[in-house]
Design a protein that fits this description.
three-stranded parallel β-sheet; two-stranded antiparallel sheet
């Protein structure tokens, strides 16, 4: 199978893979915990859950904007926190992680401003 894009993880390997293949790169399967919280209600299988680190994501996106071969950075496994994946931007009751969402929104707004430089 021929691939047009190389996916990578962790981010430190991005330049190496681009130099080795000459192909654009997509960061894959990355997220970072801001804080781990003990589960007092016994909801989560490991007895704790984690808050998403939106600042880390914003910093990653900012770094990728400076690398000409980078084409993206999805936030891995971070939509809904549930009993099995004890990390997410909203919990099971759909309460948002406001701090992470604010930081991620800021990163996405920076991307939009960056992209606007290329629009005709």
């Amino acid at each position: 199978m021929r691939r047009n894009v190389v996916t990578f993880s962790p981010i430190e390997d991005m330049i190496k893979w681009h130099q080795a293949t000459g192909k654009p790169v997509l960061m894959a399967d990355n997220a970072r915990k801001r804080e781990t919280i003990k589960d007092e209600r016994d909801t989560y299988r490991d007895g704790e859950y984690s808050l998403v680190d939106g600042k880390w994501y914003a910093d990653v996106v900012d770094g990728l904007l400076k690398h000409p071969a980078a084409i993206g950075a999805p936030l891995f496994g971070a939509s809904i926190r549930n009993r099995h994946r004890a990390r997410g931007l909203i919990d099971e009751m759909e309460q948002p992680g406001r701090e992470a969402i604010r930081e991620i929104r800021g990163a996405n707004q920076n991307v939009a401003r960056w992209l606007s430089k290329f629009e005709c």
